[in-house]
Design a protein that fits this description.
- With 503 residues, the protein is mostly helical.
- The chain contains 19 helices and 12 strands.
- The strands form 6 sheets. The chain has a two-stranded antiparallel sheet. It has a two-stranded antiparallel sheet with strand order 2-3.
- Helix 7 runs parallel beside helix 14 and helix 14 runs antiparallel to helix 16.
């Protein structure tokens, strides 16, 4: 690709760092980093940035809990009789402030933030020590990446641990603990939701200022200006700032040089479509930002709970299978169905026969070395930007433009047809259904229901686990907002207040 920021020319080393302290808000980015002078050179800064990217590989984040738990908790899948009880508390809505997955998500996001703060606290001194203009320019670009990383981490915290944003009440609703410094003590208390989002927007503005459009490219494994716009569009939608959501998504949907393009039904190679290739090899023109893996460095096996082929390498033992209502959403010609689902032999004594989720069957290059069900997370895709802009247009009453965006997305996924029209009476259900079809099991559903003030109901289906298969969850249920981990509330010096879901 274009320049030194390309994933293939950036330093590939990943740093594994961990320190155990009372509160995850106090964690150092690495046990060998103990003094302010530890980041004093350009190479130190580059290594610290690499450590930030390595933190996103955590199984608690996009390759695991952050993606899977919200959708398992919602209405997209059913636990199977005989399942391993993985994520069972989320499936059953039996969630407490000591839930290990929630603790891990919270801690891992603040680990990313801590590493970003460690970098930002010292970057001015590093920059002042440099004399080469090219090196200074590169360092400034790195700093833009760090602001983008911190903004993304905070955006996920407010999505999981805060109420949906309402401009009329956000000033009086608890947000998250904002840590902007690494070496300075800051109050350990929650900012308002309004101030939390304002901090995210501030970081995104800095990222967009420091990152350069000429370095935007598809399939990026490093943060770009395009990635900052993608996060900004999503955050603006969540904030009900429809104009800004449209503005930022439009930057990506009309980008003059990055080469972004929706994966379509055209054949890429060997009978594999571009949509298939997107999921089989985690590579596509429509990927804005992904978490890059190698054959020696990769994350959690996202697809294991949907397949568990490695139990005996003969049959599949899924913990969860798609809800029938989800399968019914896909109509003839929609190639996403075959890209996401397949009928495979299961090894259960009850002889389960059901379409299984193969969206995360695994990156084929990793499968070649016997690493199964492990895909590179793709948190920012062009498809989501069409959905963001379509929803924002609907909120603004422009159903014609919304229909155009939905149709553009769907036509890329259909062998023929795909036209979709919305109006004042059907737009929300239509948007909801299309987000499920496109973003299935990518971690959006729980927050979508929360921000739309919707509940859901489960009714039993074939071989589904008795416990949890009959459940009605009302809109506004406290557990749409995850509890703040108990150890954070009880840590020395903590002034953090819990959520209504804390118990």
């Amino acid at each position: 690709m274009k320049n030194k920021f390309n994933m293939f020319t950036r330093t590939a080393a990943l740093i594994i760092m961990a320190v155990s302290l009372n509160s995850c808000l106090e964690k150092l980015p690495g046990d060998y980093i103990l003094e302010e002078e530890s980041m004093s050179t350009f190479n130190d800064a580059e290594q610290t940035l690499t450590g930030i990217y390595s933190a996103f590989m955590s199984g608690a984040l996009y390759s695991g809990y952050l993606t899977l738990c919200p959708d398992i908790q919602a209405d997209l899948v059913y636990a199977i009789d005989g399942y391993s009880n993985t994520f069972g508390n989320h499936w059953l809505w039996d969630i407490y402030s000591t839930n290990s997955e929630i603790e891990a998500v919270y801690a891992s996001l603040y680990t990313v933030i801590g590493r970003c703060n460690f970098y930002l606290d010292q970057i001015d001194e590093v920059r002042a020590s440099l004399t080469d203009d090219t090196t200074i320019k590169t360092l400034d670009y790195y700093t833009g990446e760090v602001y983008c990383a911190r903004a993304l981490a905070y955006s996920e915290l407010v999505k999981c641990f805060c109420e949906a944003y309402d401009p009329a009440t956000a000033e009086n609703v608890p947000g998250v603990v904002i840590r902007s410094k690494y070496f300075e003590k800051e109050p350990v208390r929650r900012a308002s939701l309004k101030d939390s989002y304002a901090f995210i927007l501030s970081d995104l503005a800095k990222a967009q200022e420091m990152l350069e459009e000429e370095n935007d490219y598809y399939n990026a494994a490093f943060f770009t200006k395009a990635a900052a716009h993608a996060i900004n569009a999503r955050v603006s939608l969540y904030m009900q700032d429809w104009d800004e959501a449209v503005r930022h998504s439009t930057v990506l949907l009309t980008h003059p040089s990055a080469g972004f393009e929706l994966a379509d039904t055209g054949l890429y190679t060997g009978g594999m479509t571009f949509i298939d290739y997107l999921w089989n090899y985690d590579s596509s023109f429509e990927i804005i930002w992904k978490i890059g893996y190698t054959q020696t460095s990769y994350g959690y096996p996202t697809g294991a709970v949907f397949l568990n082929f490695t139990n005996d390498y003969m049959y599949y033992y899924p913990d969860y299978v798609p809800a029938q209502w989800v399968l019914n959403l896909y109509t003839a010609g929609d190639t996403r169905y075959n890209a996401y689902f397949a009928s495979l032999p299961t090894g259960y004594s009850h002889q389960l026969q059901w379409p299984l989720l193969v969206k995360y069957y695994g990156n084929q290059d990793l499968i070649s070395i016997y690493v199964y069900h492990t895909n590179m997370p793709k948190p920012l895709r062009l498809a989501e930007q069409y959905l963001i802009r379509a929803e924002a247009y609907c909120r603004m009453g422009d159903y014609t433009k919304a229909s155009e965006d939905l149709t553009t997305l769907r036509k890329s996924r259909f062998t023929s047809g795909g036209t979709l029209n919305v109006n004042a009476s059907n737009w929300l259900q239509t948007i909801s259904d299309e987000r499920v079809r496109e973003l299935y099991m990518e971690g959006f559903r729980l927050h979508d229901l929360k921000r739309w003030n919707m509940g859901f109901e489960r009714t039993p289906q074939a071989n589904s686990l008795k416990e949890g298969s009959t459940m009605k969850v009302d809109a506004g249920d406290p557990l749409f907002v995850w509890p703040i981990p108990k150890h954070e509330l009880e840590a020395p010096g903590s002034e953090i207040t819990g959520n209504d879901s804390n118990r």
